[in-house]
Specification:
The complex is a heterodimer of chains A (483) and B (485). By secondary structure, chain A is α/β, with parallel strands linked by helices. Helices cover 44% and strands 14% of the residues of chain A. Chain A is built from 17 helices and 20 strands. The longest helix of chain A is centred in the middle third of the chain and has 22 residues, at 254-275. In chain B, the strands form 5 sheets. In chain B, strands 1, 7, 10, 11, 12, 13, 15, 18 and 19 form a 9-stranded mixed β-sheet that branches. Chain B has a 4-stranded mixed β-sheet with strand order 9-8-21-20, with helices on one face. Chain B has a 3-stranded antiparallel β-sheet with strand order 2-4-3. The chains are: A alpha/beta (483), B alpha/beta (485).
Chain lengths: 483, 485
Amino acid sequence: MPSPTPALQPIRPAFHLRLLDDHQQTMLRDGTLGILERVGVHCPSKRVRSIYRQHGAVVDDDTGIVRLPPPLVLEAMAHAPRHFTLGGRRLEFDAALDGSAMYVATDGCGTETIDFATRQRRPSCKDDVGRMARVADGLSSVGFYWPIVSAQDHARTAPLHELEASFSNTLKHVQTETVMDERMARYAVEMARVIAGDEAALRARPPLSSLVCTIAPLAQDEGGMESALVFAEAGLPVGFMSMANAGSTGPGTVAGTLVAADAEIVAALVLIQSAYPGAPVYHSMMPGVMHPRTGAYLGTAFDGDLLYPLGVELAHAWGVPSLAGCFGTDAVAPGWQAAAEAPASLLLCALCGAETGSGMGLLESCTLLYPEELILDTDMYHRVRILAQGIDIRPETLALDVIADVGPRGLFLRHKHTRSSLRQLRFSDLSNQPAAGGGYREVIEVAREKVGWILDNHQPEPLDDAQQRELRKILQAAEAESE
Amino acid sequence: MTLQAARPAIEPLRTTQRLRCLSDEQLDRLQEATLQILEKTGVRFPSEKALAVLADHGVLVDRDTQIARFPRALVMESLKTVPRYFRLGARDPAYDLQLQQGLTYFTTDGCGVETIDFKTRERRPSCKDDVAKMARVADHLASISFVWPMVSAQDFGRTAPLHEMDAVWNNTVKHAQSETIMGAVPCRYALEMATVLAGSRDEVRRRPPFSLVVCTIAPLTQDKEGIEGAMVLAEAGVPVGFLAMPTMGTTAPAALPGALALADAEIISAAVLMQLVAPGAPVFHSEMHAWADPRSGTYISYPLDSRGRFAPVELAHHWGLPSLGGAYGTDSERPGTWQSAIDVALDAFWIALTGAEFVTGMGLVNTYTLLYPEALILDDDSYHRARYALLGMQVDDESLALDVTAAVGPGGHFLAQKHTRKHMRDVMVPSLTQSPDAGGHYRDPVEVARERVDWILENHTPEPLKSEQQAELKRILAAAGREID
């Protein structure tokens, strides 16, 4: 018996921040245009190079370097839509990227899972993707779903199995970040068409979108770019994410890393707009900072908090929506570090107007799934969401008559207004949970129980039988072709 | 003489950004609500001295109930003399704090009652030596601009508040702020101690080496000792702030705007009294509301909905008063937990964006009652995370590094570039969480924090007070002990 999926609760900020002034924004934009024109990007795909060439890029087939003259960049970017919708399986789970709200997804593509039952660390599998889609479906914090780990039990067709597990277990929009070649992309689009029902719905409310990582510095992945073209042709949104690392794959300054990463992303967006003008695209900046002693990518260094919201402002400067980097802690287990690192970047990104973000539920720099981390991140998400939504001041909430009734030294507890209002105050359902012997329960244990509760009690409305059969057929065909 | 670790310069939060949580209309509405409460419901002042001053100036005083009702014109008129900014003096003038727009100074938390012992790690009642040690740690932290005695000197009976000041002044060159000196007599002794430090009463007025926070009692009541002590200090030009701590659902309405207006009325009534006692006296506004757990009635500082945590800052500014913001003080029973981080993670960041001039306080857990020395270091980490995020970004030719990017080119590596070596130290400021161990793994941040406390205590001793000042303070404490205990 299916259970209802709670309504989405995106972050609707009442306040806005702008971190870059006009002059800084112009310098960064000119920097990106200069890099694209003079340094170029490495593009290993012949097909992609030929599209660039047709639209006026300077292409060197020997080196694979493509240089984009500024007029080409500006002309192509002029076609990119500023707003579009990420469709859910049902209309009420659509995420309209219209600038009024920020929708946040789970993290994705982790490679290991702390097993739900044994609590042992093991390679991730398709069942983890399905289960966590179900947990995500039961949480109002999750605006759309990234297959949270890799379906490593399905070899080369893993990305498609991740999609099947996701579509079968959530009514929310699904965004893949693992479909990285043209053939897989065609199957993925077929699956999306099954979910949408028809071509018009597929384009108006696409149930699937894709994210492709660029390679820092200034390089593209052949399969990723060719896959992106397939998505764009079908009208499914595609985004490009740069994960440049200041000090190793980016310059050792924040501005330098930002501008190099921006150039990577914009080069890819230009390709999509040249090939399919008006196709929905988005911009995603998730640079890290190299630890000077270990060389590690740190997503949450002190200055890193600033890189993500600055990425949001760059996206908007190019007139496209943004997928903000947030969460993505470097902590190795749930606890102080994970909670200390994430909230500020989420809040900053929301206040800078990010339309989407991702990153809930994984640890160890986006690689390790602790199921309860999604619940902990949800608590954090709601703290930020509520804080950002502003205060409601009305006669009922000012309660001047109640204050006059109670008077100096009185107690509000007995007043009718207190009883009715107290219920509307929102407390965490993780912290401050009374323990049997007094005191409060361990928060992480409460979160773990909550995962168990959702898995025992929440079953979203299933796909209809025909859709399930169709998806299976597509998977079989993909598997047959990949063997 | 041993070589001492140099004290880093203080690093207040600096930002040119400003968030307005409340619109002008909402602020006007809240202010109007406060004026209505003051005029119609009134505030209880259980002090004949205070009531006499209020009655003399036209406040409607009911001597039986001790309730004072404030005509709105009187409130507005008396607050005209409040200074918007003032200076907090320090033992070392280099650490004086001039309150101003765009800067937010932080202090330690205060008045905890238990300590996890520095050596035995046992939980025990707090004592004067804890105050001294933590003042020394705070003296060395760039995040701490002024110091609250972190715990109560419970080994000194009724003169504990004065001993706390003695411990702070002997262990930091930064400004000291008390939240425990209550009553006219103790405040006169504190003033004497401050005069020893500053040299003269005039100098205390010019660069007050201490200030005081007095709690009001929700709903709508003043504390007799608190308010009479505050009157003494206001006359001497020592800054006094009033801190309202209403709990929504028990001592305040279970709705945020109602609680804000109620708390504001308590604070404003006290601020008005100070201006009537000593026009132009430096006063500040502070409100930290809490929530009653609907199941147990327990005091909760950090529910899921923390909206309004920072609204009092805007309300203070609307009245033209500086604001002592409230931040940190997790409900978690120990530091280093998920809850201790999530509760406070946005505090420093958000309070600076609202423009609080100064803020309390880092380093206590279990809702401001328990000192784990390492908690101050963990909160310091969260503070600096916010500080960097607020600093904004430099965009110029050097930081854009377009020539470096061109030299490296697509698919290259920046590690060998001179530019990378030059800037890497600035771009990567390691957090507590990024201390690698011998095996290249990151160490437990709580353990790293604990070691940092030990390191500071072993290596940092601030310049001592002159021996004659120390002797004078002791003489004053002895006299206070005879009179008060």
